Amino acid sequence: MTNTFQRIGSKSNAHVGRDFEDIALKILSENGITAEKDYGVKVGVGGRSKVHKFDLGADEPAILVECKSHRWTSGNNVPSAKITVWNEAMYYFHCAPGRFRKIFFVLKDERKSNGETLASYYIRTYGHLIPLGVEIWEFDENTGSHSVVYGH
Fold it and tell me: Which CATH number is 87's domain given?
């Protein structure tokens, strides 16, 4: 049985995610930022909290990073379920302590019809859900470079 939601050419979506986290660690390191995988921090609202593990993070410097290597659908449509995951990440950033720098590290994927990147689309349509202080970094797998497309 084949998984129709599996990224073409990858062993598993979990492997894709871990590999992308490794890329983010390298980019952060090149920018003088040290972080570790599966960084846990208490998050919450209304005086209640629970530990949530961010993809990457550190105490010093205080930083939290969520990584998403999502793409437009094969039909060039919005990946609605994945955008929901992006909204969830924004909520966790909102609920995290304010002392942390917050980076949303995403894959640069351009829509074939108009060249808009998934990050640009998200900022345009869901910008009202991005908490103050969150930075969105976009990684271009073709060039190996990144750019900050929102915040900081």
Answer: 3.40.1350
Output the pTM of the full model: 0.89
Q: What are 68-109's pLDDT values in tens digits?
A: 999 999 999 999 999 999 999 999 999 999 999 999 999 999
* 55, 28 contact by CB (below 8 A): no
Q: 3 lies in a domain?
A: no
Residue corresponding to tokens 């103050």: 132
Determine the Cα–Cα distance for residues 148 and 123; give it in Å rounded to an integer.
Answer: 12
6 inside domain: no
11 in any annotated domain: no
Instruction: Write the DSSP symbol of residue 131.
Output: P
pLDDT tens sequence across 3-26: 444 444 445 455 688 999 999 999
Q: 10 Å Cβ neighbour count for 142?
A: 7
What is the total count of domains within the chain? 1
- 51 located within any domain: yes
3-state secondary structure at position 102 = strand
Print the domain residue range for 111.
17-150
CB-count burial class (<10 Å; 0-12, 13-18, 19+) for 139: buried
Contact between residue 15 and residue 21 where contact means Cβ atoms under 8 Å apart: no
